[in-house]
Amino acid sequence: MEASIPARQTLSTIQAPTPAIEGTPIADLDGVHVRLGTREVLRGLNLSLHQGEIFALLGRNGTGKTTLMRLLTGQLRPTSGNVRVFGGDPGRDAATRRMMSLVPQDIALYPRLTVRENLEIMAGMAGLSKRETPLRVEEVLALVQVEDRQGDLIDHLSGGYKRRANIAAALLTRPKLLLLDEPTVGVDVEARLSLLRTLRRLRDGGTSILLTTHDLDEARSQADRVGILAFGQMVEEGPVADILRRMFGDSREVVVTLTREPGDSVKSSLGRLGLAPTANPLEWTSWSTGVEGFASLPASLRRHGIDLHEIRVREPGLEHVLAHVEGGQP
Ligand SMILES: Nc1ncnc2c1ncn2[C@@H]1O[C@H](COP(=O)(O)OP(=O)(O)OP(=O)(O)O)[C@@H](O)[C@H]1O
């Protein structure tokens, strides 16, 4: 069996340089370092965001995704390095900050007021005039499709509707860059699809969207580009298909499921056949670039007296990318 890829070291050596990315940059982070307390959270991070794209920021808990958002919104200044958004410094320029909105993970609305009342108050706080407020409120209610619930108290809304109302508030100022911290966490499938449709509509209208998510399927299906944050840097960045091609080429993961947990001698045999253990003691994996690589595997396992329950071939996905980059050295 061919087990060529992806031992971590092998992968690092086959990675090609990131190809040039098209699109008008609207935000640039250049060599950004951030120290919080004794921790160096970001260590020379580089990132460009483009106009009219959905960019999904991925990475384990605590890797600095929220920190990066706070840099973009100017709530946090870098310890060193440069942050430019729409040509300005968000830490210094109020005009730059007004061009973007952050949708936090927590619902930032008054629970005992209706959706409409919340939006009217937020419009006033954002500096919209009394004359333009009603029209803009109507527009954002329509954009996030909460018109039918505008008279309900926030407290009485489901999680999905609360999220939509939260996004509606962020859209009052017509931001050119919308940042969302885990927008779909804890909402049901229907609400999630509706939220994602809203984001795509905004993107198609020219808004740039940066969102954080731990949902890899969502990132793959919705984002024009993803960025993977690990060890204080953007370790991978680009369209998912490009990252997968660059990292895995034609390789596919072969997953072997055994009928029972292997003992030491069977484990040695599996290792000799090029299979590596996974977190599930019944599952062993290898990588192969062609059918020939695994077609003979069932017979080989039988010869070693190993009972096979199932053999599957999997396309590489973002979970493989994350496992690879997060297993690297800081
Ligand atoms: N004020 C602070 N002082 C010290 N450390 C901090 C401070 N704020 C955040 N941190 C640490 O910085 C790191 C990055 O935090 P951040 O919230 O940006 O991570 P994250 O990727 O958004 O995490 P999650 O996925 O859990 O939301 C974490 O280890 C966090 O504990």
Write the layout of secondary structure elements.
Layout: H1 8-14, E1 25-36, E2 39-50, E3 54-58, H2 65-72, E4 80-85, H3 94-97, E5 100-103, H4 115-125, H5 133-143, H6 159-171, E6 177-181, H7 189-204, E7 208-212, H8 216-222, E8 225-230, E9 233-238, H9 240-248, E10 252-258, H10 264-272, E11 276-277, E12 283-288, H11 291-295, H12 297-303, E13 308-314, H13 318-326
Parallel strand pairs: 3-7, 3-8, 5-6, 6-7
Antiparallel strand pairs: 1-2, 1-4, 8-9, 10-12, 10-13, 11-12
Helix pairs in contact: 4-5, 5-6
Adenosine-5'-triphosphate binds at residues 36-37, 39, 41, 59, 61-67.
Description:
It comes from Microvirga lupini. By secondary structure, the chain is of the alpha/beta class. The chain has a domain at 249-326: 2-Layer Sandwich (Alpha-Beta Plaits). Helix content is 35%, strand content 25%. The chain has helices at 8-14, 65-72, 94-97, 115-125, 133-143, 159-171, 189-204, 216-222, 240-248, 264-272, 291-295, 297-303, 318-326; strands at 25-36, 39-50, 54-58, 80-85, 100-103, 177-181, 208-212, 225-230, 233-238, 252-258, 276-277, 283-288, 308-314. The strands form three sheets. A six-stranded mixed sheet has the order 5-6-7-3-8-9, sandwiched between helices. Strands 11-12-10-13 form a four-stranded antiparallel sheet. Strands 2-1-4 form a three-stranded antiparallel sheet, covered by helices on one side. Helix 7 (189-204) links the parallel strand 6 and strand 7. Residues 36-37, 39, 41, 59, 61-67 line the site of adenosine-5'-triphosphate. Adenosine-5'-triphosphate binds next to strand 2 and helix 2.
